[in-house]
Structure formats: C-alpha cells, structure tokens
Backbone:
C-alpha cells in the first residue's frame, strides 16, 4: 500500500472515531460520577487536584489526536471496576519513577479510575507510526488488576514509536518532497507530543503531591508506631506484672501442694490406723454377732420351751375341764348315793329296831312256849298240841324270813363296802393327779426362774453392748476433722458408711431383740397371770424398761449419726464449690497464658498436672455421689424401720388391750371363786381352815384353786359317808 492509501484509511478511522465520540459522551459523564463516588469512598486521602481534574481534558486530548488513536466502538462494560486501595498505590509508587518520557517511564496514576484510563488509552486499537507507515495494533483490554509496570511499558512503547515515526518522517522528507499530508502528519505528531508533555507535567505535579502525601503519611505512620509502641509497653507492663503474680501463685500452689502431700501422707497413716481400728471393731462386731446368734438360739430354745409350756398348760386346762366335769358328775352321784345311803341307814335302823323287837318277842314267845309246853304236858290235850305245832310252823317261817333279811343286810353292806372302796380309789387317783399337776407347776416355776435369770443375763449383755457401742461412738467422735482433704474424707466416709451399716445391723438386732423382748413380755404377762404380781416379774419389767431405754438411746444415736453424715455432706458440697472456683481460675489463667510467651510452658505443664488431680478429684466426687445414693437408700431403710416400729407399737397397744381383758377375766374368776366359797359354806361340808387354805391357793394361781377346792370337798365327803358304818 502507498502512504496516501494509509493516510486515507487513517482519516476514515478518525471520522468513525469522531462519530462514536458523541455516543461516548454520556458514558464518560457516568464514568466521571462513578469516579467521584469511588474517590470519596475508597480514597479519602487523595489530594483535591486529582479529584477536581476534569474528564474533559482527557476527552480533548482524545479529540485532538485523531491520527494517533482509533476506537472500534463504545466500551463493552458499563459498570466501572473498583479502584485499588490508596495505601498500596502509594507504596508501589516512588518519586524516582516519574521522569520525562525521553529518559524514563511515565506511569499513569493508579488512583484514577480504570475506565478513565481506558478512555485516555483506548483499549481496542492504537495506530502507531512505524517505518513511515501507520499500523493498527490490537492491545488487550486493560484491567484494573494490571500493575503500573505494564502501564509504563505501554507508554514507553508509544513514545518510542512516535520518535521512530518522526525519525522516519525526517529521513523520508530529506529523500522525497514533503507533501501536505506529511505536514499535516508532523503537525499532528507535534500536537501529540505537546499533549504528552502536558500530561507528563500534570503527572509530575501529581507525583509531587503524592510524595508530599507520602511524607505526611510516613509522619503519621511514625506517630502511629510511637503510639503503638507506647500502647504495647503499657499493655506489656501489666501483663509482665500478671506473669510475676502468676509465677508467685504457682510457687505458692507448689508449696501448698507439698504441704498437702505431706498432710495427705499423715492422713494416710492416720487412715491406716483407723482402718486397723475399724478391723478390730469388725472383729468385735463379729464376736458380738456370734454372741447375738447364741442369744438368738437361746431365745429360740426359750420360745420353744414356752410354746411347750403353753401346750402343756392348754392340755392341763383341757384335762382340768374334763376332770371338773367328771368331778361334778361324781359329786352328783356321790350326793345321790349319800341320799340313798341315808335312806338305807334309816331303813336299817328301822329294821334293827324291828329285829330287836322281834328278838324280844321271840324270847317272850320262847318263854311262853316253854310255859305252854309245860302246861300242855301237864294238861295233855291234843288240840293244844295242834295249836303248838301251828305255832312252831309260824316260828320256823319267821326264822326263815329273819335269815333272808340277814342275807339281804349282808349283801347291802358288801355293796356299800365296794362303793366306798371304789370311791376311795377314785379319790386316791385324783390326789395323785393333783400331786402330778403341782409338781408340773413347780417345774414350770423353776423353768420360769431360769428364764428370768437368762433374761437378766441377756439384759446385762445388752447393757455391755450398749457401753461398747457408746465407747466406739466416742472414739469415732474423737477423730480429727477431715474436711480439708478429700482423700481422708473419702476414707472416713467409707468407714462411716461401714459403721452406719454395722450400726444398722446392730439396730436391726436391737429391734429383733425388742421383738423378742415383746414376745418375752407376752410370756411374762402370762407368767404374771399365773403368778399374780410376783416380785421377780417386777425385776423383769424393769429390765425390759431399761432395754427400751437402750433402744431409744440407740435411735437417738442413729439420729446423731445421720446429723453427722449431713454435716459431712455439707462440707463435701463446700469442697466441690471450692473446686469449681479453682477450675474457673485455672481456665482464666489458661486464656492469659495462651497470649503470653513460651515462658509459661512450665506453668502450663504444672496446670496439666493439676488437671489430672482435678480429674482424680472428680472421680472421688463421683464415688461420693454413689455414697450419697447409698445414704439415700439407708434413709429409705430407716423409714421402713420406722414403719415397722409403728407397727410394733400398734401390737403393743393390742397387747395392753388383751391384758385389760385378762384382768377382767381374772376379776370374773375371783367372783366365781367367791361364789364357790359361798356355795361351800351353804353346803356345810367344808371347814373354815380348809377354806382358808383354798383361798391361799386361789391367790397363788388363777385356775388351779377350783380343782383344789373340789378335791378337798371330795376328801371331806368320803369319810363322812363312812362314819355311820
């Protein structure tokens, strides 16, 4: 292509650019508004000369260089890209970089909006004179992220191309005639150079402003650094003081740890001693449990013996009732026989009188017969002889009747003797039975005495056990307070739990003893009914009352132990709260130690050890919580025992009611005995001395006196029936 054709093409491009310029004015106005907003928001420290720099100068420069700039169309993006931060631009730029274009690079200021830079250097195509011809070079789109070095290279290339174009133009002008187009081109290039110089001068001015701004910012930076160093010194001094304080606290904690370790060793030795004492107590408790087992066996034997006594007593009562019935029947038979014997005696007396009269008559008749025989012999009449024979026959008949009457009397006497012998044998059997019953009562009394002695021995043993329990309680109370150290508290809580369990076992045994004592009370009430207010029963009652007092003391001691356990629990809660406070303090120290230097590593290691100790203590706390649950179970058992105690009290009330009923029955028996006395006096068969003896025997027992009285009446009735014989 010729130069003329190239110039024509450049003119066409310029015309097209001028046509597009009108369309880009609106876009340039919007870009200027956005640039002002960005400078107000992002670059508050930019001088006012840059902010007030109009966009029209750039537009004029673009219009005044129609041959140097070609634009293919409007910009593709309508939204401006964000401007970079001023601090980074100021640091990247320095005054040494801004020199004239002939010597060094001339960068475009980076604080301007990239869109304006695109308008000053169109992003699409730039015409460059090279070897006396215009060439279009397609440059890539300028992005705001490109560094200032690329911009500098771009400007240097433009300046070098313009200089080469001028040199080529001068060489060609010397060789060939300069036409009007070349003149126009030279004018255009000179105007471009003037504009470039003007822009370079403006950039120098901006660089000077930026350098002043940089100096101001450096002064501000120095002041800020001084303030920051002063602040750091101010902040570091209390931190160092805190470090010293924490070092002192760690030293104190280490000393306290050593003291605590020594105290723990002492408490461990004390706990070992206490464990040996607890083992001794366990052995003593085992011995006491064995003794209690023996006592329980003896009590079971006593219960069995009392049950046998009750059975024998019931059998005796049944035998007594049966014998009483038989005695009443025999008494009725005896009375009937006495009546019959009285009638028979009267009949015998009458018959005896009749016999005596008949004997007299016989004697008289014999005398008369002898006289009559003599007279008959003297007279010798046969009729008289016949009358005599008739009299003899009558006499023989009468003699036969007499012999028959004598035989009947003999048979009646024999029957009477047999009945008297049978009655005597029966009375002897009753006497033997009475003697056996009396012997059994005496043996029962001896057994009761043995039981009372055993009960006294049991009471003495229980008193000894109470004394031992009180001694052990005093020993437990004399232990040193162990609230300051958790391990000792754990050992003591375990020992206390064991003692509480043992105490509960003792309390259960005491309650069993109370139940057995109540059973013995019932037996004693029965024995009292048999003995009627015996002196030895009063001793047993006093012993039982003392046992009740001991049981009440044991209950009060249990309550005291519960109070002590509650105090220990409160102390443990205080310890747990103090532990929580310590953990919070440790966490605060950790947060401070993380901000400090490596000097706190040793302290953090010690804190880790403290953490492990806290974990152990937490495990101890869990064990104590388990112990707490066990204590709750123990309280539930105690409530159950209280319910049983209330039930036993109701049983005691029922026993008192039965005792009242027994007293009423006793009174009724006394009234019946009085009635029997009255009946005995009415019958007249019992003497006063025998009645007094029967009364004494009635006072000795409740049920035996009736038997004795009836036996005495039987003994007295036998001889009286046999007196007339």
Residues:
């Amino acid at each position: 292509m010729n130069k003329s054709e190239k110039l024509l093409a450049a003119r066409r491009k310029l015309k097209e650019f001028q046509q597009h310029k009108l369309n880009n004015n609106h876009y340039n106005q919007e870009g200027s508004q956005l640039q002002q907003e960005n400078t107000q928001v992002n670059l508050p420290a930019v001088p006012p000369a840059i902010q007030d720099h109009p966009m029209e100068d750039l537009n004029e420069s673009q219009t005044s260089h129609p041959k140097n700039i070609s634009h293919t169309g409007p910009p593709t993006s309508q939204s401006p890209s964000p401007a970079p931060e001023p601090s980074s631009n100021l640091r990247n730029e320095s005054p040494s970089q801004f020199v004239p274009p002939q010597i060094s690079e001339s960068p475009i200021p980076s604080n301007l909006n990239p869109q304006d830079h695109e308008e000053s250097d169109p992003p699409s195509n730039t015409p460059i004179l090279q070897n006396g011809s215009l060439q279009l070079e397609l440059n890539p789109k300028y992005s705001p992220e490109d560094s200032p070095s690329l911009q500098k290279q771009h400007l240097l290339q433009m300046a070098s191309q313009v200089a080469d174009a001028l040199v080529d133009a001068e060489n060609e002008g010397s060789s060939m005639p300069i036409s009007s187009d070349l003149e126009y081109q030279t004018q255009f290039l000179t105007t471009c150079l003037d504009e470039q110089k003007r822009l370079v001068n403006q950039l120098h001015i901006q660089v000077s402003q930026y350098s002043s701004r940089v100096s101001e910012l450096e002064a501000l930076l120095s002041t800020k650094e001084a303030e920051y160093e002063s602040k750091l010194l101010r902040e570091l001094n209390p931190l160092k003081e805190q470090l010293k304080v924490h070092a002192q606290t760690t030293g104190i904690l280490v000393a306290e740890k050593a003291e605590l370790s020594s105290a723990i060793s002492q408490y461990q030795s004390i706990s070992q001693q206490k464990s040996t004492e607890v083992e001794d107590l366990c052995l003593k408790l085992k011995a006491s449990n064995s003794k209690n087992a023996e006592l329980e066996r003896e009590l079971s034997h006593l219960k069995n013996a009392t049950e046998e006594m009750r059975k024998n007593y019931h059998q005796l009562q049944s035998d007594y009732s049966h014998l009483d019935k038989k005695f009443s029947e025999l008494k009725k038979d005896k009375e009937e026989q006495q009546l019959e014997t009285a009638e028979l005696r009267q009949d015998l007396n009458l018959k005896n009188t009749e016999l005596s009269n008949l004997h007299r008559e016989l004697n008289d008749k014999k005398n008369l017969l002898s006289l009559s025989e003599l007279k008959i012999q003297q007279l010798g009449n046969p009729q008289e002889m016949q009358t005599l024979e008739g009299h003899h026959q009558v006499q023989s008949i009468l003699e036969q009747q007499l012999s028959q009457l004598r035989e009947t009397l003999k048979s009646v006497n024999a029957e009477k003797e047999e009945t008297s012998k049978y009655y005597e044998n029966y009375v002897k059997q009753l006497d033997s039975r009475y003697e056996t019953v009396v012997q059994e009562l005496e043996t029962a009394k001896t057994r009761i005495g043995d039981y009372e002695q055993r009960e006294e021995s049991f009471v003495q043993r229980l008193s000894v056990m109470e004394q031992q329990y009180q001694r052990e309680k005093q020993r437990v109370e004399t232990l040193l307070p162990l609230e300051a150290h958790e391990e000792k508290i754990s050992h003591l809580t375990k020992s206390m739990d064991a003692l509480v369990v043992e105490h509960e076992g003792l309390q259960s045994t005491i309650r069993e003893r109370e139940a057995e004592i109540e059973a013995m009370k019932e037996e004693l009430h029965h024995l009292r009914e048999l003995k009627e207010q015996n002196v030895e029963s009063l001793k047993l009652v006093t012993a039982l009352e003392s046992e009740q007092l001991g049981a009440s003391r044991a209950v009060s001691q249990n309550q005291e132990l519960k109070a002590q356990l509650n105090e220990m629990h409160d102390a443990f809660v205080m310890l747990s709260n103090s532990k929580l406070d310590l953990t919070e303090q440790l966490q605060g120290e950790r947060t401070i130690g993380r901000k400090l230097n490596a000097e706190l590593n040793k302290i953090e290691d010690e804190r880790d050890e403290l953490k492990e100790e806290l974990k152990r203590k937490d495990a101890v706390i869990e064990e104590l919580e388990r112990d707490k649950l066990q204590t709750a179970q123990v309280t539930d058992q105690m409530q159950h025992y209280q319910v049983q105690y209330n039930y036993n009290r109701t049983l005691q009330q029922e026993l008192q009611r039965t005792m009242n009923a027994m007293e009423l029955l006793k009174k009724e028996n006394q009234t019946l005995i009085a009635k029997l006395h009255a009946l005995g006096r009415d019958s007249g068969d019992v003497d006063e001395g025998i009645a007094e003896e029967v009364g004494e025997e009635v006072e000795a027992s409740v049920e035996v006196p009736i038997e004795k009285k009836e036996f005495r009446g039987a003994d007295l009735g036998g001889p009286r029936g046999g007196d007339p014989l």
In short: The chain has a mean pLDDT of 66.
